[in-house]
Amino acid sequence: MQQEMNQRLSDMTANAAHEFPPVNLWMGEGSVAVTAELPGIAPDEVDLTVRENTLTLRGERGSPTEDERSVWHRRERVYGKFSRTVQLPFRVDPEQVEARFANGLLEVELHRPETDRPKKIQIKG
Hints:
Blueprint: H1 2-18, E1 23-27, E2 31-37, E3 46-51, E4 54-61, E5 80-87, E6 97-102, E7 105-111
């Protein structure tokens, strides 16, 4: 029975790791903003890349040191390597990306290239 419970909990941990880090995305007229929660991770431990209309976050969250005599009562936080790719609503200019990191929150603003922005057409009457 203990083995079965451990297996089920292990499956839940693997599923949670798939969705790390959680992200929010807002779209403006000429840019998109993405925020990601990265508690316990330093800014230099995060690899941020952008290509056309995708943003990828990669890194690794180290596990705490454990005493061999410790027995987990509850273990919900996941550790190890992570990678999250977010599909953006339009192509972005990789030269116009601003990233800020404070208190475990990564904020990224990605600007749309001027040539890809919709242009309003004047109708002559």
